[in-house]
Automatic annotation (TrEMBL):
L-homocysteine binds at residues 467-469, 635. One of its GO terms (biological process) is methionine biosynthetic process. It is an enzyme of class 2 (transferase). GO terms for molecular function: 5-methyltetrahydropteroyltriglutamate-homocysteine S-methyltransferase activity; zinc ion binding. It comes from the Bacteria. This is 5-methyltetrahydropteroyltriglutamate--homocysteine S-methyltransferase. CDD domains: CIMS_C_terminal_like (cd03311), CIMS_N_terminal_like (cd03312). SUPFAM superfamilies: UROD/MetE-like (SSF51726). InterPro entries: Cbl-indep_Met_Synth_N (IPR013215), Cobalamin-indep_Met_synthase (IPR006276), Met_Synth_C/arc (IPR002629), UROD/MetE-like_sf (IPR038071). Its EC number is 2.1.1.14. It comes from Promicromonospora citrea.
Amino acid sequence: MALTHPFPTATVLGYPRIGRRRELKRAVESFWAGRTTADELESTALALRRDTARHLVSLGLDADGGAVPGSFSYYDQVLDAVALLGAVPDRFAGLTEAGPGGHGRLPLAAYFAVARGAGDAPPLEMTKWFDTNYHYLVPEIGPGTPIAFADDRVVREFTELARPDDGGAPVVTRPVLVGPVTFLLLSKAADGSPEGFRPLDRLDDVVDAYAGVLRALAAAGAPWVQLDEPALVTDLLGAGFDEVADAVRRAYARLATDLAPGRDRPAILVAAPYGDLRGGSGDGLALLAGTDVEAVAVDLVRGSAPTGAVPGLDSTTLVAGVIDGHNVWRADLGARLADLEGLTAAGAGAVTVGTSTSLLHVPHDVADEPRLDSALAGWLAFADQKVAEVVTLATGLTQGREAVADRLAESAAAVRSRAAAPGVVVPAVRERTAALTPEDAERAPYARRAAAQRERLDLPPLPTTTIGSFPQTAEIRAARAAWARGELSDADYTAAMRGQIAATVALQEELGLDVLVHGEPERNDMVQYFAEQLDGFATTVNGWVQSYGSRCVRPPILWGDVSRPAPLTVSWTAYAASLTSKPVKGMLTGPVTILAWSFVRDDLPLGETAEQVALALRDEVADLEASGIGVVQVDEPALRELLPLRTAAHAEYLDWSVRSFRLATAGADVATQVHTHLCYSEFGQVIGAIDGLDADVTSVEAARSRMEIVPQLADAGFGRGIGPGVYDIHSPRVPSVEEVTELVTLAAKAIDPRLVWVNPDCGLKTRGPAETRESLANLVTATRTVRATL
Ligand code: GLN
Ligand code: ZN
């Protein structure tokens, strides 16, 4: 097959799209608020896309040939695919207008309505994107869902940069789309689909529509297109390798073989980020090499490099993802260049350099972090630094090491400086983890704990509690921000937070809750709050990363051995306890969640880092106990999220993650009640682990799935306290007394009622004060009703 354009020697699989100063976030939110028009939003987005593309060229990517990824999105790349296909659920059909070929196209306002809901129509569900902290919208596909080439936005966006009308330099980008197989495997069957229907059944329709897009891109002059197929690196999407392989063969026979490259379509790069193409029950690399796509991008950070010749790869370009798109460390360029040189064994037609994943998951630029310690800054690579690394490696690969000798030397010096820096390895921390014994992760048998806790806490049946946070009002956020800016003194800040805590305690007493919380007003974020106080972490000022839509987070950077220089939460919790005779629950974030929502170090196994965090928390639990606290909750909402994409790796992960939780909590006295909170609804793969945590009480999200989890736990023999959420905190809706009564009754029937707790699904920080009061009042009333029937 004749290649009109060889694949660029250096590329990245995607680039942050929210803007260096979160320009897109602001533009989108002002459109939502009705302060700007769709035209204004589109012109802000165009300017951002132009600046970004030209900036990437200034960093060394080629301006033509498709080296610069066209990976922009107004909200989410999966929603973009929904829009491209016009695959809109019926409830939004009225919002579409006629697009090319008369198919239903979503104007911008409707596109956002599908993402965020409109009137009575709930939005698409949102869930985690592979093993990242990015959330995508889950398409709903049924047998009758419209699927066609309905929206040519991706073509327009290509043309706007390739033939700009602002007099600036043109950039020939490589449009990036979610691949057809991954799109359908990430979809769920639309409500009302017949039994046995699966979205993948619509593959031919999706592929036909993609064929239309590819034709249009070829006509517009795009040399390359990128189709992301990370479905090939995971076992968690409910399809086995053979089924995925069959779908890939069918899809790419139609797209790559039946369409003539250069005429009917651009050359195709299939990217397989986030994991190991060859780690499942079949070889995904050989599978792709056997299709007629011109290039395959592999993740060589998470995945393994082929050690021998791969059949069919001789006519394919291998885009070697040796720069980590998912973490923030500067690469050891000498070692990565050696990896690239070693790839010749695979027998690829050509080897070029790329990132392991899109750079969507890292902040823009280390130079935007004036407050970072300068040594630490020298070890980091954010998106722009990673582009430069890719360019350096490509130069080294094509022109020889001498051509980049200076940069290799700088990189080696950074690696050495990091390894030797104070704080990276702290002997006292290492000695403590080395001395751990299995007993350190064991508590006394549950029966003994339960008896001691009954005596100490004297709670009614079906005890009521909350998950920790209370509404974070504008007033609370303003006080925290003023304090951070130095405009509020420590004393005034403490007084303000204590005022909030006192009000929260008073409210809970008035409502009649049984186990109270302090409400977490002092916490900006449940991970950052801890990272700011622990040694071994740094936090950023501008290190924003898109979490979903316009929402961005600033993950802390875990760079060294972790320890706790001083108590973290004790003064706030003890203050709350001093205001009431009811038990107050101390609130900590667990080790796995702290790791999951941070950038973690890559020079120590995650399990060992987790032990260090666990021991810091263990000391905090001891200090809470010493101050008289008898109930401590350790939240692990991310336990499910870090679950490896390959089933073969699950046992090892669950082993260290469960152990780290137990290390954090097993120092507690028998009479101290340990709670945990897990918030997601897919428990299937972690049900054994939930039991393994050995918490006295476990609260879980359950309201939307109508307590489904409770019988599952009962079947698995779970015999400790369980608090299935009875109040869906994801919406402002107040649950009625009847509704809560019904859910509590369901739970108390499915499992021994003496084990059942009553609580909301999750923390209340995003809720308003009025709806919170009303909802909790209903929760208490309903509980009293059910109690009377026991
Ligand atoms: N304790 C936390 C809160 O209530 C738990 C949050 C979470 O599970 N995501 O906000
Ligand atoms: Zn939660």
